[in-house]
Write a structure and sequence with these properties.
The complex is a heterodimer of chains A (429) and B (65). Chain A has 429 residues and is of the alpha+beta class. Chain A has helices at 28-38, 49-55, 58-63, 78-107, 124-127, 163-167, 236-242, 297-302, 367-377, 419-428; strands at 117-118, 177-178, 182-184, 188-199, 202-213, 219-223, 247-250, 261-264, 267-271, 278-282, 287-290, 305-309, 339-346, 349-355, 381-384, 393-395, 398-399, 411-415. A 7-stranded antiparallel β-sheet of chain A has the order 2-3-4-5-14-13-15, with helices on one face. Residues 1-27, 34-44 and 123-144 of chain A have low confidence and may be disordered. Chain B has one domain (2-64). Chain B has helices at residues 2-28, 38-64. The longest helix of chain B has 27 residues, at 2-28. Classes of the chains: A alpha+beta (429), B mainly alpha (65).
Chain lengths: 429, 65
């Protein structure tokens, strides 16, 4: 280093006299002082290095050596540094996981999220139940009119059935009829078919629940423990029983997020736009699936949404054809897995489809195969729900399919008798 | 202060590695909001701040050399 000096071998005599020749053996400090002393003041400020360089002999510069390195014990080794950094990465991830998962669950454990508003819309099927006014009898001559027997008007027969009950009259029964894989009543018709065998070259097992309802309120959803709690979860069968579900299928696990567009049973929890495909069941019984750019939350709210799901992606296009590309970047959705999906034929007619997977008796569906299945069923809209171990279909209080594992559910789609209907049936019985 | 500035590049590298892990997890399950939650946004902001300070420190040191 430039500022350092090694001790010269030839030392100056201790007499301290100063000669005219520059003595290499003299200490540098005295040489600098001499230079300062002999320098006239008119030359301006003295540069510190000039006298040093001028008086330093070349031999001395040659003798200069780089400064010794600090002792090794103060410098961490490369391996130690890498280990320390890896440990730091682990600490960062643990801290992140704590704040991302653990802390929100602890703080929100007992916090029930209440709906912002409720969509006030008269269900179409109920409103259309009102009898149409009967046409009045044509006026004729007075003498041709029959004599009045009574002043009371003739009783008008009103068909109490809803439009959907009339349309699907062959599906409903006057009394409740239950079998191992079907249920029918004046208001609900459920038929589950199990398909086990080769499908598109692979051994598959899947279940199709063909569903007809008399009223949109027969189609409900239910959160775990019957309340919207962040990360709330409950056993699928217990959840179905608590909701009096005739049949239920896992939903989209919407309660692990605190944003999006979420309406359940007419209650609006969130009304933000989201980046996932959205599925909406309206009060009039129609179902529509949207890409993120295809809907406006305000317009949707005005249209009367009854249920929304935000998992996806949507499986069929506007013409009811299977999608070939899906709105997701998640590789796992393209893998063979147990699947759950919701299909729509027409108002009042829906289907739940659950496919087993990751087991000997079922390979599981990739998403494109699942979409093709809905197209083959003749659905006009179809939407993918949470899958994997979440894919659970319950019927009559029991698990109907064979889930690939056990996982508690955050929410379910279910078909049930509405309390008024159940009361009527009990009264009739 | 000097020790802290010397430590910043390590912290930036470690946070970058953690962010890569989080991004991979987000690819597997985006519904868990690995990159869109509030804590994730705070983490990304802190990462950017650390990288910024570390970069400025490195630039100043290089210019003094």
């Amino acid at each position: 280093m430039e500022g350092r000096h090694t001790t010269p071998k030839h030392t100056a005599p201790p007499s301290g006299r100063t000669g005219t020749r520059a003595q290499p053996a003299q200490p540098r400090k005295s040489a600098e002082q001499a230079a300062v002393r002999t320098r006239p003041e008119t030359e301006g400020p003295v540069r510190r290095e000039e006298p040093e360089r001028a008086r330093r002999p070349e031999t001395e510069e040659r003798m200069e050596r780089p400064a010794p390195r600090p002792p090794k014990k103060n410098r961490p080794s490369a391996a130690g540094m890498i280990l320390r950094d890896i440990l730091l990465v682990g600490i960062i991830l643990v801290v992140f996981a704590f704040f991302h998962h653990v802390l929100p669950r602890i703080t929100a454990r007992n916090t029930v999220i209440t709906p912002k508003t409720t969509v006030v819309t008269t269900p179409a099927a109920v409103s259309e139940n009102t009898p149409e006014p009967t046409p009045s009898a044509p006026a004729g001559p007075e003498e041709e009119q029959p004599p009045e027997v009574s002043e009371e008007p003739a009783p008008v027969e009103v068909d109490p059935r809803t439009e959907w009950q009339k349309r699907f009259a062959d599906k409903f029964t006057d009394e409740v009829v239950r079998t191992a894989d079907s249920y029918s009543s004046p208001n609900v018709s459920i038929t589950i078919t199990t398909h086990s065998g080769e499908y598109k070259g692979y051994y598959q097992t899947y279940y199709i629940a063909d569903i007809y309802v008399a009223n949109i309120e027969n189609f409900r959803t239910c959160f775990a423990n019957n309340q919207f709690v962040y990360y709330g979860a409950q056993d699928a069968v217990a959840l179905a029983k608590s909701a009096n579900a005739l049949i239920s299928m896992n939903g989209d696990y919407c309660n692990n997020q605190r944003s999006g567009f979420l309406v359940r049973n007419g209650d609006v929890y969130y009304d933000d736009a989201l980046s996932f495909d959205l599925c909406v069941l309206f009060y009039d019984g129609t179902v529509e699936t949207y890409s993120p750019s295809e809907y406006d939350p305000e317009e949707l709210l005005a249209a009367g949404p009854y249920q929304t799901w935000k998992f996806g992606p949507k499986l069929l296009d506007a013409d009811g054809k299977a999608m070939t590309s899906f709105n997701t970047t998640t590789e796992i959705i393209y893998e063979e897995a147990p699947r759950s999906g919701f299909g729509y034929y027409e108002p009042g007619h829906y289907c739940f489809v659950v496919a087993d997977g990751r087991q000997n008796h079922a390979r599981g569906f990739v998403l494109s195969e699942f979409a093709e299945l809905f197209e083959e069923l003749g659905c006009t809209r179809a939407y993918n729900m949470d899958g994997g171990a979440s894919s659970v279909l319950t019927f009559d209080g029991n698990t109907f399919n064979k889930p690939s594992g056990y996982r508690q559910l955050g929410d379910i789609l279910l078909i049930a008798e509405i309390p008024e209907q159940a009361g009527e049936e009990e009264g009739a019985a | 202060m000097k020790k802290f500035l010397d430590f910043l590049p390590h912290l930036a590298a470690c946070m970058a590695a953690a962010l890569i892990v989080i991004t991979i997890l987000n690819g597997f399950n985006p519904l868990m909001a690995w990159l869109t939650s509030r804590i994730s946004r705070i983490f990304i902001f802190l990462f950017c701040a650390v990288v910024l300070v570390s970069s400025i420190t490195a630039i100043v040191r290089n210019s003094r050399r």
